[in-house]
């Protein structure tokens, strides 16, 4: 699934998804032959979990600690 599809489905901007990957909230996303991010179902589930936890008021710092 491309970043734009994940962004639309989850209601999170592509910029935020790239940021979550950059800081380590998301594992490095695999890329296709053209270098385009290709999100797996597992990646999508993690994005949904992060979104839920952020909605519950958890900070990025707390989530980073949780995923360590």
Question: Which labels suit this protein?
Answer:
mainly alpha, 68 residues, globular
Describe this structure in words.
This protein has helices at 3-10, 14-23, 41-55, 60-67. The chain is mainly alpha-helical. The radius of gyration is 12 Å and the shape is globular.
- Topology, number of strands: 0
Gyration radius, rounded:
12 Å
- Quote the distance from N terminus to C terminus: 26 Å
Structural class: mainly alpha
Return the string of H and E elements: HHHH
Name the overall outline.
globular
Q: How much of the sequence is in beta strands?
A: under 5%
The biggest sheet amounts to: none
Average the pLDDT over all residues and give the rounded result. 95
Helix content: 55-70%
Quickly count the helices: 4
Low-confidence stretches: none
Protein topology:
Blueprint (H helix, E strand, L loop, with lengths): L2 H8 L3 H10 L17 H15 L4 H8 L1
